[in-house]
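FAQ

Q: What does a record look like?
A: Structure on top, sequence underneath. For example:
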């Protein structure tokens, strides 16, 4: 009978932590992707609004409309700057999440290597035990057939 791997609890815990880190990394990647999508949307809306403003200027625009366009474009610029910062922060969180997952995976690999070594050692021991029993059995049969020796 093989002995249980003494560090099995730690291996199980490391696997759980790696799974949690992978799940969290997936969420971080999704959040970063969503933040990037929002930034692209704001930037495209700003380009579109800037084009409308340019068209309005060519056709003639009053001071009130000029001010409204300018204020709205500046608000869009502020929103774009804030969203760029959000994207950068999300990217940093994702990078840290990737590193956390790599760290957990490294631990799992280390414990898994130890587990494989343990099981290989147990298999060798079991094989030696089985061989010893077989040898004893064969020796006994030989002695029983040749009582003179």
């Amino acid at each position: 009978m093989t002995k249980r791997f003494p560090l099995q609890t730690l291996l199980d815990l490391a696997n759980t932590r790696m799974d949690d880190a992978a799940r969290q990394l997936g969420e971080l990647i999704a959040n970063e992707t969503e933040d990037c999508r929002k930034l692209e949307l704001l930037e495209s809306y700003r380009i579109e609004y800037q084009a409308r403003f340019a068209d309005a200027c060519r056709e003639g625009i009053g001071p009130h409309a000029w001010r409204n366009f300018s204020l709205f474009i500046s608000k869009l610029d502020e929103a774009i700057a804030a969203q760029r910062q959000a994207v950068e922060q999300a990217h940093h969180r994702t990078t840290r999440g990737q590193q956390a997952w790599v760290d957990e995976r490294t631990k799992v690999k280390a414990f898994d290597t130890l587990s494989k070594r343990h099981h290989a050692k147990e298999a060798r021991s079991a094989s030696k035990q089985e061989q010893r029993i077989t040898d004893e059995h064969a020796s006994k049969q030989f002695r029983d057939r040749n009582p003179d020796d």
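Q: Is there anything notable about this one?
A: The mean pLDDT is 92.
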